[in-house]
Amino acid sequence: MPIGARNAVALFRAAWIHRQMHTVIAIDGPAASGKSSVARMLAKKIGFLYVNSGAMYRAVTWLVTNRGISATDAGRVLGLLDVTKFECGTANNQSTILIDGVDPEPHLTDAAVNANVSAIASIPEVRRILVDRQRQFAETNDLVMEGRDIGSVVFPDTPYKFYVDASPEVRAARRAKQGLADTIAERDKVDTTRRTSPLVIAEDAHVIESSYLTIDGVVGEIIGRLKLKGLALPEGV
C-alpha cells in the first residue's frame, strides 16, 4: 500500500476506532466491475443494510455542478458544503441521502456527474466528511458497503473484505450498455493515482474476477467466503 494510503488509513481509523461497530462487509472495485449490483444483492440475501458510498460522492458532485461550481475549485466546493444540509438515512434497507431536502438520485448518472465525480472524490476534505457519514451507518446497522476505499480506509479493521474486478474491456462494455459515456481508462487513472484514499486492493481482501461470472456467481462466492470466516448468516443462505 502506498505511503499516502497508509497515512490516510491511520488518520481515518483514529476518528472511529472507539465507536461500537456492527458487522461490515466491504466490497471495493473499479468502475463497472459489478460491485454495486453484487453488494445490493448480497445485502438483500443476508438482511444487511446496503450502502452505496459512490452515490454519496455523486450526490455532492450533482450539487456542485448544479450550482455552476468547478469540481476542481476545492475552496468553493467546501464553502458550498458548509451551507448545505445533508441528511443520510435509510429506506427499504438501503442508504439514502437528501441535499437541502432534495433527493438527487434521478441525477446521479447525469453526464456532468460522470465527468466530474472523480475530481470531487479527490478532494481530501470531501472524503473526510463523507467517510464520517459512512461510518455512522455502522453504529446502528450491519451493512454491506461498496466503493473504492471501504476495506482500505473506511473500515480497515473489518475481516470481511472483497475486491470485485473485471477486465477493462468487459467494464467498458458494461458501461456502454448502461448508457454511460465516461472513459474507463481515465476513471481508473484518476481513482488509482489520487493522493487521498486511492483505489487499492486491501492486503487482506479476497479478490473476485467477475469478467465471466454472473452477479449470482459473485454473490455465491462471497457468501461461501463469509461462511468460511465464521460469519453467522440467515438460515437457507
Describe it.
- The chain is an alpha/beta fold and 237 residues long.
- It has a single domain, classed as P-loop containing nucleotide triphosphate hydrolases (Rossmann fold).
- The protein is built from ten helices and seven strands.
- It has helices spanning 3-16, 35-46, 53-66, 74-82, 111-121, 124-137, 150-154, 168-177, 184-193, 215-228; strands spanning 24-28, 49-52, 86-91, 94-99, 143-147, 160-165, 206-209.
- The strands form two sheets. A five-stranded parallel β-sheet has the order 2-5-1-6-7.
- Helix 2 (35-46) packs across helix 10 (215-228) and helix 3 (53-66) packs across helix 5 (111-121).
- It is globular.
- The mean pLDDT is 91.
Task: Summarize the SSE layout with pairings.
Blueprint lengths: L2 H14 L7 E5 L6 H12 L2 E4 H14 L7 H9 L3 E6 L2 E6 L11 H11 L2 H14 L5 E5 L2 H5 L5 E6 L2 H10 L6 H10 L12 E4 L5 H14 L9
Parallel strand pairs: 1-5, 1-6, 2-5, 6-7
Antiparallel strand pairs: 3-4
Helix pairs in contact: 2-10, 3-5
CATH class: Alpha Beta
Q: Radius of gyration in whole Å, from Cα?
A: 17 Å
State the strand order across the main sheet: 2-5-1-6-7
For the residues shown, what is the average pLDDT? Answer: 91
Number of domains: 1
Distance between the termini: 34 Å
- Could you describe the largest sheet, including whether it forms a barrel? 5 strands, parallel
Number of helices: 10
- Helix share bin: 40-55%
The count of β-strands is: 7
Classify the fold: give the CATH topology. Answer: Rossmann fold
